[in-house]
Amino acid sequence: xxxxxxxxxxxxxxxxxxxxxxxxxxxxxxxxxxxxxxxxxxxxxxxxxxxxxxxxxxxxxxxxxxxxxxxxxxxxxxxxxxxxxxxxxxxxxxxxxxxxxxxxxxxxxxxxxxxxxxxxxxxxxxxxxxxxxxxxxxxxxxxxxxxxxxxxxxxxxxxxxxxxxxxxxxxxxxxxxxxx
Length: 180
Prior knowledge:
- The protein has a single domain (about 5-180), classed as 3 Solenoid (UDP N-Acetylglucosamine Acyltransferase, domain 1), CATH 2.160.10.10.
- The protein is globular, with a radius of gyration of 16 Å.
- About 20% of the residues lie in helices and about 30% in strands.
- The chain is an alpha/beta fold.
- It has helices at about 10-30, 40-50; strands at about 5-10, 60, 65, 70-75, 80, 85, 90-95, 100, 105, 110, 120-125, 125-130, 135, 140, 145, 150-155, 160, 165-170, 175-180.
């Protein structure tokens, strides 16, 4: 599945993305100002950021950072720890019962590696996290990655490729340590 996009930074499409980034960073700051005992306000602020409901079993510990927001979809009973950053405007699909520890980065955008395109284009690919996944503290999930159901991503891992169902991955780059 190749859903990658190459977008020029001096285009109307990119200007629309930049306009949304301004809104999303403002909404992220608003969300990040809440304290843990303000769960209802946190949920409402997150729903405003992503433009859709998340359900009563949603739990997020601020601060939280997103530079687009409308690309994020969250299932039931999802937990997101503090200081997480979901960046880029590619789709981020988080299924039911996912646990995301603190300081996790979900990154859907980047730049081409070719020197002549680095400053003139961005690349975009979606991230999909299937049900009952646990992502450990300070892990980074890069563009285009799918994480299979019941998988565990170890703390500090950098996930550059798809993670098979019911496996533990760790390291930089992350590799399968064992099957669960």
